Amino acid sequence: MDQALQTADAPIEKAPVQPRRITWYIFGVMFGINLLNYLDRYIFSSIASTVAKDLHFGLDGIGFIASAFLIVYTVFTLPLGFLADSVSKKRMIAFCTILWSTSTVFSALAGNFLSLFFTRMLLGIGEAGYYPAGTALLSQNFPPSKWGKVLSWWNVGATVGLMTGFILGGMIVSSFPQGWRYAFVISSIPGLLLGILTWKFPGREPETKKTEPHSPDA
C-alpha cells in the first residue's frame, strides 16, 4: 500500500548534474540578460523628452508610450509564465531576449509616435516572458540550498541595468544629434548576442515525468 501511494506522488522534476563552471556560466549570461532587461526598459525614461521633441508629441504621448509597455507586460506575464512550464526554458529565454532586443532596434528607427508605441508594446511582450522562464532555469541549475543567493545576485543585475539605462541614455543623447536613436541601438546589440548564447546553453534540461498510480494488490 505504501509503495502504491509513493508512485502516485506529484510530478518530480530532477535537475541534471552539470559541472560547476557550466552552471556559473549560465548564471553569468542570465545576469547579463537581466541587466539588459531593465536597461532596455528604463532607457526610454532618460531620453523621452528628446524623443518627443524629434517625433513631435508631448508629455501625454510620453505617458501613452510608457503605459503601452506596462499594460502589455502585465497582460502577458501570466500566460507566458504558464507557457514557461511546458516548453524549453533556455529556448523561451532566448526567444524573448531576441524579441525585445529587436523591438529596441526598431525603436531606433521609429519615425512617428505610433511606430514607437508599437515597438514598446513588443518590448513588453518579450520582457514579460523572460522572468518566469529565467527563474525556472536558474532553479533547475542550482540546488535549493543556493536559490536564495543565486536569485538575489540575479536581481542585482536588474538594479544595475536600471541605473545604467538612465546614465547611458543621458550620456548618448547629450553627445550626438538624435542621440536617442544611438541609445536604442547600443542597448539592443548585447541582448541579441546574449540571446544567441542562451539558445546554445550546454547541457540538457530536465524533463517532467509523471508516474501513474498502481492499484494495490488484492
Automatic annotation (TrEMBL):
Q: Which GO terms describe its molecular function?
A: transmembrane transporter activity
Gene3D superfamilies, per this entry?
MFS general substrate transporter like domains
PROSITE patterns for this protein:
MFS
Q: How is this protein positioned relative to the membrane?
A: Multi-pass membrane protein
Its localization reads: Cell membrane
Residue ranges annotated for the Major facilitator superfamily (MFS) profile domain, each copy included: 26-218
Question: Which sequence ranges are marked TM in the entry?
Answer: 22-39, 59-80, 92-111, 150-173, 179-199
What Gene Ontology cellular component terms go with this record?
A: plasma membrane
Q: Keyword Transmembrane helix: yes or no?
A: yes
List the keywords (alphabetical).
Membrane, Transmembrane, Transmembrane helix, Transport
The protein here is known as: Major facilitator superfamily (MFS) profile domain-containing protein
What is the scientific name of the source organism? Answer: Dictyobacter vulcani
Mind giving the lineage of the organism this protein is from? Answer: Bacteria, Bacillati, Chloroflexota, Ktedonobacteria, Ktedonobacterales
